[in-house]
């Protein structure tokens, strides 16, 4: 099982934009309204912190590899190599580079019309890390930090997320 997780502040920011373009989801005129719903477990797929917490009990299982979106952004070649090794897939250097190039955010965004049709514009927005800094107020930062500590602080999944690196202003 490959478990891909992302820091909760960027998850909230990304889902805010996603939900505002998906007619089947509630849309939010203001970020503050979305944030309140996100923090009070009123998301279509439930609470992200509970999701992370539920996976923590499997973090050390031999058949589970946890990797973060941020890791893949930092060093895509190392991430792809680690995933291939986990699944016992042998890759030549040329194949590795091909996977890295084709799985880059920009490549997937450029190919989205072919691979996802019109829905591709919804799925691929920015693809960056730390866009949350453009949305979170100081109070929202504190609330998210507290929720992170309560749910996954000190856990294997929590450590993997490098919260101090990616989620501190």
UniProtKB/TrEMBL annotation:
It is an enzyme of class 2 (transferase). It holds the Pfam family Sulfotransfer_1. Residues 1-155 form the Sulfotransferase domain. Its EC number is 2.8.2.-. Keywords: Transferase. It comes from the Eukaryota. One of its GO terms (molecular function) is sulfotransferase activity. Belongs to the sulfotransferase 1 family. This is Sulfotransferase. It comes from Upupa epops.
